[in-house]
Structures are given as structure tokens and as C-alpha cells.
Amino acid sequence: MGSLSINDHQQLIQRINHANKYYPSPHLQVQLQVCQLRTLINEPLAIHPLVVFTHPDASLNFEYNPDLITLQALSLRMNELMEEYSNCESTTNIKQLAFDLKSKHSRKHENLYNHYQLSKNQLISGVFCIWCSEKKTLMTRTHGTWQCPSCGRLDKLAHIEALKDYGYLINRLINNEEARSFLRVNSRFTVSRLLNDLKLEKIGEGKGTKYDLTKLL
Ligand SMILES: [Zn+2]
């Protein structure tokens, strides 16, 4: 968003509230990705790099370039490119390629908590009600289920989303004590049952047992 321009050194400058932020050129970035994609697919294929600025409040203030466009211009540009490359690849080849690329995909597991240098007190723990998500209401554990004090809904599996957050943000391994603290449940037995019911892989035994949340992520 904001006013976007590109300087002679190919840096992208974002101007918001009278302050400039600098980013590497998206055009150079996408050209680098073309090279990386070529190495990956190892085929003489036409690859056309295109940069699309999707934020509706982005104002593009650089010389017109048909490959640095707004979202509104994308479908027209796609039609032009389809025409331009109409003789290149058959749909079957493209489908096979898409399938090959998909099979090579692996998820990136990154510790976001460390990446953004968050501290524990910045994170609100607990099981949030998905129906009241904008109000950020925490559900409470009552009679073997989770209940939202705001909308009154019951959800037996509401803790799964919280455990996913824990897996993504903090650690893929969690023990009973950590789960009690994160889910805001006092009972060791309740948490033990919740974790065991998810049939997660377990590491260790007894009080030191760690549950692997990978299956949920
Ligand atoms: Zn609710």
C-alpha cells in the first residue's frame, strides 16, 4: 500500500505517512525465481515473470511496465500472454508440470515466535471462540467441552486450533504442563485426555512425555 516507486538502483520505495521504506526490486526478485524454477524443472520451457501489486491502496508511481501491474490489469495481461505463448506448451504438458511441481513441494517449518522475536507476554494464550474471532473471546472448559461465554456455543474440538497455534508459533513438541498453561486448563488429567485423544506421536514417558503436534499442522 502507499505510493510505490522504483529508483535507478532498482530498489522499490514505499512511501507511507511521509516515511520511505526500501525493498529489493520485485522485478529482479521474480527474475531470480525464474532461474530457480528453471533449475527445478530442468526443461526448455517459456517462463514469463510477472509482478502483481495486489493491495487496493497501492499507487504505482513508476514508468509503465506491462509486467509490473495492478491486480485489475492481471486478467487482460494474462490474455495477452496466452496469445503470445499459444504455440509453446500443450495443456497436457502444463498439467504434468503442475503435478510434478506439486509433488516436489514441501512445507517450510519455521519458528515464527523466534523469527519475529516475540516475547511470551505478547502472546495471548487460550482457546479462542472461532465464531467470536473478532472479539477474541476465550472459551472455557465446562462439562467435557469448550464453551464460549459470549455466544454460548459449545465445541468439543476447539483446543485443536490453539494447539496448532502453539505448534506454529512456539514448538512442535508440547508436554502436559505447557499444554495446561497454553490452553488455560488446570487439570493434568483433562489435558492428558485431550492430547491422547488426538493420537499424536509421543516422545518419552511419564511426566516428561512430549506430544508431537506435526500431525495437526
Ligand atoms: Zn463465541
UniProtKB/TrEMBL annotation:
This is Nuclease-related domain-containing protein. It comes from Amphibacillus marinus.
